[in-house]
């Protein structure tokens, strides 16, 4: 497909998506959004994820009748370890009424150019072909609300300070006990120690008389 085969997508799109962002969080597993067909033609659209292993989309392919709306459910698969999708793509294709009905894959296989344009959805291209098959795309962002990690630094600091305070108190008490025991031992020694030699001699002299 060359640049001559494509033109810029018009401002008007026959498909309206009621939101442009999905927010997942640990407490919310599923989200829904509505795709509306505002045209008088049948619309085939497909929803894709950048990492399909993380989220499941139901339904993935839908045929919208004129003036019809469809609710799409997106579920976050928690046990997936392949990564998190950044965006969700809603691609729509309008097929002329003369075309045979079929699902999205068969429509795209019959319109190889449309399929190539569908793969180039980021550039929002539509085809300029005699069959007037048109392609539109919508990009929905996906945001993740991560749980806040509990800050245990304060608890650790408090515990450490409390521990140091307790150790200081214990040391002070030990010193007090040591000084008390020292005084007590001195007093006991004073009581048990004999009289000085001078007084002993005086008493001896007195006893000789």
From TrEMBL:
Annotated segments matching region Disordered: 148-191
Domain of life: Eukaryota
InterPro entries from the UniProt entry: Ig-like_fold, MSP_dom, PapD-like_sf
Compositionally biased residues, Polar residues: 154-166
Residues covered by the MSP domain: 19-95
Name of the featured protein: MSP domain-containing protein
Organism this protein belongs to: Rhizoclosmatium globosum
């Amino acid at each position: 497909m060359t640049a001559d085969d494509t033109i810029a997508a018009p401002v008007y799109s026959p498909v309206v998506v009621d939101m442009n962002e999905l927010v997942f969080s640990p407490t919310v597993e599923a989200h829904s959004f509505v795709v509306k067909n505002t045209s008088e033609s049948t619309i085939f659209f497909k929803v894709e994820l950048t990492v399909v292993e993380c989220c499941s989309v139901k339904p993935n392919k839908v045929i919208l009748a004129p003036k019809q709306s469809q609710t799409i459910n997106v579920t976050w698969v928690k046990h997936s370890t392949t990564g998190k999708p950044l965006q969700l793509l809603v691609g729509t294709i309008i097929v002329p009424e003369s075309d045979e009905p079929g699902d999205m894959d068969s429509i795209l296989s019959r319109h190889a150019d449309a399929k190539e344009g569908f793969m180039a959805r980021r550039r929002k291209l539509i085809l300029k072909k005699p069959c007037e098959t048109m392609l539109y795309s919508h990009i929905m962002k996906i945001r993740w609300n991560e749980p806040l990690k509990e800050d245990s630094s304060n608890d650790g600091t408090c515990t450490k300070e409390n521990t140091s305070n307790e150790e200081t108190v214990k040391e002070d008490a030990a010193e007090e006990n040591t000084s008390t025991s020292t005084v007590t031992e001195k007093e006991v020694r004073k009581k048990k120690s004999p009289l000085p030699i001078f007084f002993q001699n005086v008493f001896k002299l007195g006893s000789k008389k």
